[in-house]
């Protein structure tokens, strides 16, 4: 475990944890925290991203990687436009573009190359 304590954090099974970590580092400025293997299989890894921790692992018979849509992760960031564009440039698919939303945030959603969706958003000032 890391030195930080996060009582709840998602664990994303992916086809390749190493490829996903590299993508999140490049696109979302994530910071790798730990990586554990059993043989060649990544059984647990953690990254710090957008001020929180996300765990990852190689999909297996107990926790398969998504075949289609995976987990939806909400991520607060000061610059959702920048991160959505970076994700699209790196092979993500736009679910909906960044825009001012009726619920009081500016945000958009992408599906990453590993099947998981990210709602990238920032609160808007109240008028």
Proportion of β residues? Answer: 35-45%
H/E topology pattern: EHEEEEHEEE
For the termini, the CA-CA separation is 43 Å
In CATH, what is the class? Alpha Beta
Number of structural domains: 1
Overall strand count: 8
CATH architecture: Roll
Helix and strand arrangement:
Elements: E1 11-14, H1 17-28, E2 31-38, E3 41-49, E4 52-58, E5 72-76, H2 80-89, E6 93-100, E7 105-111, E8 117-123
Parallel strand pairs: 1-4, 5-8
Antiparallel strand pairs: 2-3, 3-4, 6-7, 7-8
Question: What are its keywords?
Answer:
alpha/beta; 17% helix; 127 residues; 8 strands; four-stranded mixed β-sheet; globular; 2 helices; 2,3-Dihydroxybiphenyl 1,2-Dioxygenase, domain 1
Descriptive overview:
The chain has 2 helices and 8 strands. It has 127 residues and is an alpha/beta fold. Strand 3 (41-49) and strand 4 form a beta hairpin. The protein has helices at residues 17-28, 80-89, and strands at 11-14, 31-38, 41-49, 52-58, 72-76, 93-100, 105-111, 117-123. The mean pLDDT is 94. The protein has a single domain, classed as Roll (2,3-Dihydroxybiphenyl 1,2-Dioxygenase, domain 1).
């Amino acid at each position: 475990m890391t030195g930080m304590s996060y009582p709840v954090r998602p664990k994303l099974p992916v086809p390749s944890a190493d490829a996903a970590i590299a993508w999140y580092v490049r696109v979302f400025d994530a910071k790798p925290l730990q990586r554990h293997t059993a043989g060649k299989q990544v059984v647990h890894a953690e990254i710090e991203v957008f001020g929180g921790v996300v765990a990852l692992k190689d999909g297996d018979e107990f926790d398969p990687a998504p075949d289609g849509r995976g987990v939806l992760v909400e991520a607060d960031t000061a610059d959702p436009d920048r991160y959505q564009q970076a994700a699209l440039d790196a092979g993500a698919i736009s679910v909906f573009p960044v825009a001012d939303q009726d619920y009081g945030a500016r945000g958009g959603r992408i599906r990453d190359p590993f099947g998981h969706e990210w709602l990238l958003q920032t609160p808007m000032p109240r008028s």
